Here is the input.
Amino acid sequence: MKFEVTILGNSSATPIFNRNPTSQILNINESLLMIDCGEGTQQQLLLYGIKYNRIHHIFISHLHGDHFFGLIGLISSMNLNGRTRPLKLFGPKNLLEILQIQLKYSDTRLAFELEFVALDPNNTGLIYETRDYTVETIPLNHRIPCTGFIFREKQRLRKILKEKVEPLNIPAEYYPLIKKGIDYVDKSGKTYKAIDLTTDPDVPRSYAYCSDTLMDDGYIKYLTKIDTLYHEATFMHDMLDRAKETHHTTASEAATIAKNVGAKTLLIGHFSARYKDLAPLLAEARTVFEETYIAKQGETFEI
Here is the structure.
């Protein structure tokens, strides 16, 4: 099953040095989920060939503009291009009011339903679920209420070994039962063990998204069994005082978190405008956690 993230923007606060504010597309089994929607996100979708009417779920972490200023434009374009399928939007409770005011005074009447789910930034837990994955929230520590997200694949069923079942002429309608571990009994009464006719399923993968936050045990404790961790790294560690003042994280701190929670891969982003060259941030993080990568715009990372 496909499970990958495409980076649309990795800048903090403002567009600069050809870096756009934060936005990502998570593809889970061809279901496209947008995480944050900074200014210019539509242009990034066009640039990287992602059709925005395939996006049916959007998750907004908080109400600083670099994380949602692109949202009303995206919604308007979806409407202009004939969208009728509902759009499910998760975000801070005041986000809906902001959107409604913009739609009201532009006299925009959506031809599709906007299904809004208000998030409680102080709580953690399941907010959405499909047959393929779950979405959980975690409380981050920023200057305003801010929510992190954890996306987890569900455990799949066992895989049929065709070279084992086909010679036995087992009807295809029995395959789902065998995948669930139910033995097959043929017409003569002979039993074939399901475990012998199948192989182990893939291990479920997970992706955690931590946008703007201080390094804080309050959310780190929830980052268990994470394969890929995206964590903001706004500053280098020599700017630690500035990071604390603005409720952000350094590259070194992000790497320390990834190491301590046992993540397999760390993606860092949300870079300050003071850094034109991102190589020093990457080098700093890799001194702590080697499997660190820049969340580079246009790049797709397999979870």
